[in-house]
Amino acid sequence: MAKNILIIYSSTDGHTINICEHIFKNLENAHCPRLINLKNITQSDLETAEKLLIGASIRYGDHSKELYNFIKSHKNIIEGKENAFFSVNAVARKPEKNKPETNPYIKKFLKRTGWMPNEIGVFAGKIDYPKYNFLDKHMIRLIMWITKGPTDLEKTYEFTNWNDVDEFSKKIS
Fold first, then answer.
1. For residues 5 and 44, what is the distance between their CA atoms, to the nearest angstrom?
2. 145 lies in some domain
3. Can you tell me the mean pLDDT for 148-168?
4. What predicted TM-score, i.e. pTM, was given to this entire model?
């Protein structure tokens, strides 16, 4: 039976939106998904959804304050429905950190929110140096250098394993 699935995103540079749109396309034949920015969510959106999927990006080691405030304010509604969460971060490019149980940002998020989603995913993100402002470009480059990641400021690096996104979509479905 088709479910009304609300896909909520919190994205810094747009890659989390791309992943959410990919999941949306995977679900739209069998379900009735809706895609909405966390900043635009209403109480009615939450109440009418049968299933909630929240996707969020990491910037400088943390999810957005808005995401944490949203979870805190709506935790009872979220937990009262089928729900899922995924995080998008560059650390997940490393095989030893690309699973929910091994990803430090997932662990930190779950501990901080006290929420245990029904399904949890983590996807490697994207480093888009040409798109960043001066400060972000050089801070992210420093972080990448420290963590042995790519540092060429002229290039964009996408680490997302789209097969993992497809598998997660099947779990949600």
1. 13
2. no
3. 97
4. 0.95
